[in-house]
């Protein structure tokens, strides 16, 4: 055999084995749309890291019965118009069968009708409760809604502190409005009175006027319904400078960032979290180790939402195989019930919101201490 023919033969054999590893089928396309740049870039980057890690590992194991997953990532910059553009591109040009869309509430609300129009299932982690109440059956949530946090924390407060009065500070953005509304609307269910609700701009640096009003009303706790940890930290510092030792109650935030920005002013804060940390169970411990090996840093809750979201889509892909269509993938996601993943047990069969409870921690000396 000539050397040239031998080389050609080796190339053909190599291609055969590569093709065999992925069943010689066309790749399955899955999308991710999130804020990779701009003011909310931390959300998109963290969620995408977990999502990408899942599919990298999944492909290493052979994909869907040998079919590789092609992950397509688009940046929406936390802008609804760019989110809509990315959704149209991924659905009509890239031909994804399912997607992660998106990482911000306003953008997710903007793209829900697009995915609904083309009947493409998508998952998201945003907290705004309206997202899954917009008339689309194709959107599924992989993180607790703000209503989950407010119910869990009010129930805890009523039982352990005989909580009767709170004040709310919310920002004027869509997130702050939705979260503030939830805290305000759920309060009467647990016999809690909201004595005032003060609003701030995320870019503000001084909150003296709002805080003095709250101080005069003397609530048992002050609820933070604010989108940025930086702003929350500044409010906490401002409170302590004004001599306010009222405990802070909040949900779904990066505790480390909050402590970094708020310092000792954050001590004693009660926080509702999707989960307290990565010390247990062993699945979370193992995930954290693999994540750090891959990215050189520790994971955060957003990393887990991305990873769990990938797992949910993968379960649906396997249910749909060999006929992996958007309709079959949707049916697969909508049939998931009692599935234990990193964050907890998901039930998407009875609700498009997959998680119904949160864990509760207290910040002590800058650290999270699990209290429920």
Give a structural overview.
The chain has 372 residues and is an alpha/beta fold. The protein has two domains: 10-144 and 280-347, Response regulator (Rossmann fold), CATH 3.40.50; 146-273, Response regulator (Rossmann fold). 45% of the residues lie in helices and 19% in strands. The protein has helices at residues 3-21, 41-60, 80-93, 105-118, 146-160, 174-186, 208-217, 229-241, 255-262, 282-295, 301-320, 326-334, and strands spanning 28-34, 69-75, 98-101, 122-124, 139-141, 165-171, 193-200, 221-225, 248-251, 270-273, 337-340, 345-347, 359-364, 367-370. Strands 7-6-8-9-10-13-14 form a seven-stranded mixed β-sheet. The longest helix has 20 residues, at 41-60. Residues 6-23 have low confidence and may be disordered.
């Amino acid at each position: 055999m000539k050397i040239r023919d031998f080389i050609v033969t080796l190339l053909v054999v190599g291609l055969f084995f590569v093709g065999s590893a992925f069943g010689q089928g066309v790749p399955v396309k899955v999308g991710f749309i999130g804020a990779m740049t701009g003011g909310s870039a931390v959300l998109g980057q963290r969620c995408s890291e977990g999502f990408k890690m899942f599919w990298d590992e999944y492909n290493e194991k052979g994909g869907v019965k040998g079919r590789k997953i092609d992950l397509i990532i688009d940046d929406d910059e936390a802008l609804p118009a760019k989110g809509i553009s990315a959704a149209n591109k991924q659905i009509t040009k890239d031909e994804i069968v399912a997607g992660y869309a998106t990482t911000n509430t306003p953008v997710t609300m903007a793209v829900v009708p697009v995915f609904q129009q083309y009947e493409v299932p998508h998952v998201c982690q945003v907290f705004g409760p309206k997202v899954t109440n917009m008339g689309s059956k194709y959107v599924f949530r992989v993180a607790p809604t703000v209503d989950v946090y407010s119910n869990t924390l009010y129930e805890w407060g009523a039982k352990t502190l005989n909580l009767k009065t709170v004040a709310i500070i919310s920002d004027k953005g869509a997130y702050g409005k939705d979260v503030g509304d939830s805290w305000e609307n759920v309060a009467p269910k647990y016999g809690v009175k909201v004595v005032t609700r003060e609003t701030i701009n995320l870019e503000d640096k001084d909150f003296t006027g709002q805080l003095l009003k709250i101080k005069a009303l003397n609530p048992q706790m002050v609820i933070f319904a604010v989108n940025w940890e930086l702003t929350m930290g500044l409010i906490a510092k401002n409170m302590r400078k004004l001599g306010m030792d009222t405990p802070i109650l909040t949900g779904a935030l990066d505790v480390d960032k909050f402590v970094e920005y708020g310092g000792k002013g954050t001590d004693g804060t009660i926080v509702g979290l999707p989960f307290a940390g990565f010390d247990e169970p062993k699945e979370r411990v193992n995930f954290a180790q693999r994540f750090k090996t891959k990215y050189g840093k520790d994971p955060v809750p957003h990393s887990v939402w991305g990873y769990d979201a990938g797992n949910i889509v993968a379960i649906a892909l396997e249910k749909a195989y060999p006929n992996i269509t958007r309709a079959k993938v949707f049916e697969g996601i909508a049939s998931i019930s009692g599935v234990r993943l990193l964050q907890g047990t998901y039930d998407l069969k009875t609700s498009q919101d997959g998680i119904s409870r949160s864990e509760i921690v207290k910040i002590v000396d800058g650290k999270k201490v699990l209290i429920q």
